[in-house]
UniProtKB/TrEMBL annotation:
GO terms for molecular function: transmembrane transporter activity. InterPro entries: MFS, MFS_dom, MFS_trans_sf. It comes from Rhizoclosmatium globosum. The lineage of its organism: Eukaryota, Fungi, Fungi incertae sedis, Chytridiomycota, Chytridiomycota incertae sedis. This is Major facilitator superfamily MFS-1. The chain crosses the membrane at residues 12-35, 47-65, 77-97, 147-171, 183-203, 215-232, 252-275, 287-308, 315-335, 341-366, 378-401, 421-440. It is found in: Membrane. It comes from the Eukaryota. Keywords: Membrane, Transmembrane, Transmembrane helix, Transport.
């Protein structure tokens, strides 16, 4: 790449990282008590203010990953950023809880367009593997930076100016028919509907219980839909999931990503709740005590790309990352109101993000190098779909476990017992993921497949998908 284009390339990369930053920025969990004082939602409605975003985000990632590969990365990023801006303004003006829940669901659409588009665009910007690994790790670093910044800034703005100002602040920060004929519309419809129903069922089940006929029927229908989707993908002339996508390494990454996010997001939620309900910190002080996560996460994610370039064997880093997360969960399982934050909670928060950012950034880099160029946006969508499924199922299961143990008790020790059970569950899930990585270690490789191995070079109008990738 010519040197005079270098500044523009770096500026584009910064914009793409901002897409990741904005998708996790809002920090809604920290301002939910402020929203509750204003709109007075029921417990179920309050949970849906959080979950509605994940419903559309997780349900549409696969579809947007495929659309991005067909229509171009720039269109996906521009649409995603613009949509997030518009829907954030809508949320800011929401007159009722129902309007806010609708707005949150609409926000998830923009986020689903952002992530796969940004991942694919980064791989286009940086063709050199070493530069690409560093760029992807910096993209990953934007996530912890956005998450913790969102908690701190949202908490501060929410207390000073009200919760609506938080959404306004987020808004401030923001030949097709030939290709359209090649979309697997039936596969897109079935997969999107099934994922949305599944995420809805596990989210509602953790709130209202699992005995409801509505929840059980929705869950069963979603599973049937997924089976139909898998069957259809074997028959479709141009399937939503490219036939060359799955290989031993991508399959292993998908399974381990599900397990890691099942445990990590549960840990993050219950660590946050521990600061609020065990240590009795305010929303702003909770965000302040989570700042070490942002610092360690940002530094670790930024360094991962350099490590992946310098040391091509990922297994030692995956072992280190999993062991770090296990240690963090063990430390937090001993947290009590009588034990100072600095003794256990602080090192646990630092250690969890140290391990998580090493593992997830290596997963991201490994997945991108495991697939052909024209499917890298789809790979980003697939990975983040698994992230949403793992997170959603993990949070639902862990809330069920914690509520079963705690019951209706408001006693701090009883609440701690419920949280403690979830941390021990996290330890077990992290360990299973670690054992899978070690048992199938022969599959780990940071070498990209040669172009000659690409068996799908789908005709799109008068261009191949590879030509469209370049022209986008």
């Amino acid at each position: 790449m010519p040197s005079e284009k270098q500044p523009n390339r770096r500026l584009c990369h910064l914009v793409l990282c901002s897409a990741q930053f904005l998708d996790v920025f809002l920090g809604l969990t920290i301002i939910l008590p402020i929203i509750s004082e204003s709109l007075n939602p029921s417990p179920s409605e309050a949970q849906w203010i959080l979950s509605a975003y994940n419903l559309t985000f997780g349900g549409l990632l696969l579809l947007f990953g495929r659309l991005t590969d067909l229509f171009g990365k720039k269109k996906g990023v521009v649409f995603g950023m613009g949509w997030l801006t518009i829907t954030s303004i809508y949320c800011g003006f929401a007159p009722s809880v129902k309007h806010l829940i609708i707005g949150r669901a609409l926000q998830g659409i923009g986020a689903a367009a952002n992530i796969p588009s940004a991942v694919g665009a980064i791989t286009d910007l940086f063709s050199d593997p070493a530069e690409r690994n560093i760029a992807l790790s910096q993209f990953g670093a934007a996530s912890p930076l956005g998450f913790i910044s969102g908690l701190f800034i949202s908490g501060t703005i929410g207390q000073a100016a009200g919760w609506r100002a938080v959404f306004f602040y987020k808004a401030y920060e923001g030949n097709l028919w030939d290709q359209a004929a090649k979309i697997d519309y039936f596969g897109a419809l079935v997969s999107t509907a099934s994922l949305i129903m599944f995420i809805y069922a596990i989210s509602a089940g953790s709130i209202d219980g699992w005995a409801s006929a509505e929840i059980l029927s929705t869950l069963i229908l979603s599973i049937i839909g997924m089976v139909v989707f898998v069957w259809w993908e074997q028959k479709a002339p141009v399937p939503l999931i490219p036939k060359t996508f799955f290989n031993p390494q991508t399959t292993l990454i998908i399974i381990m990503t599900f397990l890691v996010f099942f445990a990590f997001n549960g840990f993050a939620i219950f660590a946050n709740l521990s600061l609020l309900n065990v240590y009795k910190y305010s929303t702003v002080m909770t965000a302040v005590h989570l700042i070490p996560m942002m610092v360690v996460g940002f530094l670790t994610a930024s360094a991962t790309g350099y490590l992946a370039t310098r040391y091509p064997n990922p297994l030692p880093f995956l072992i280190f990352g999993h062991c770090s997360m296990i240690v963090a969960a063990i430390l937090f399982s001993f947290v009590r109101a009588s034990i100072t934050y600095w003794a256990l909670a602080f090192p646990a928060l630092c250690t969890i993000v140290l391990g998580f950012d090493v593992v997830f950034n290596f997963f991201n880099i490994l997945l991108i190098t495991s697939v052909s160029e024209e499917h890298r946006s789809f790979a980003g969508g697939m990975l983040n779909t698994v992230v949403q499924l793992g997170s959603g199922i993990g949070i639902a299961v862990e809330f069920t476990v914690a509520d079963t143990i705690t019951g209706l008790s408001k006693n701090v020790e009883d609440i701690s017992d419920g949280y403690r059970a979830t941390f021990w569950m996290d330890i077990g899930v992290f360990f299973v993921s670690l054992m899978l990585g070690v048992a199938f270690r022969k599959f780990w490789s940071l070498t990209a497949p040669p172009v000659s191995q690409v068996s799908e070079n789908v005709e799109l109008g008068d261009k191949t998908s590879s030509e469209l990738l370049v022209s986008s």
